[in-house]
Prior knowledge:
Layout: H1 16-35, H2 60-74, E1 80-83, E2 86-89, H3 95-101, H4 110-124, H5 132-149, H6 156-180
Amino acid sequence: MAGQIDSTNSVKPITGQQQEEMVQRQQRERNRSAWEDRVSLGDQESIGETYGPGLKVASPYELLRNLVVKTLQEQGLELQFKTGDTEVNFNSMTQEEAQELVSEDGYFGVEKTSQRIVDFAINGFGSDPAKLQEMKDAIDQGFLEAQDAFGGALPEISQQTYEAIMEKLDNFAGQFEKSRE
């Protein structure tokens, strides 16, 4: 029998068709690796480069600003708003303008932000100091949800704002205790 299997020889010869299929499979693999696992950031000159000089990667500020803009747009919120007499546009905001907004005297600084939240809480609960714990619980819930949205931790400015809010709410309730004495 010409087609018998030789038990002493474990290697079988490859047919022409099998060899052609192997070559085609290897070619497909080479072609696939030619376009997979490539990162292209910045201008078109860097297409095809995965790492190395010449790649233009956004600064951390630009990445964060783009994330904020995208999030606001997804929520259907305006990207422009007024902070008193100043207009802010998230699409064109510079890093310096952002730093000014969160500075000590800035619109989103600890003092002004905590005051806006406290005013909202006091008005929302009818200026009733007896509802202090409800106000604090609602604010706690808001900060916990924000913390979850930020991946488990809030920036330091948020922690400072939270502490300022709680202090202001205690001062609000303390005004009424002094008047009873």
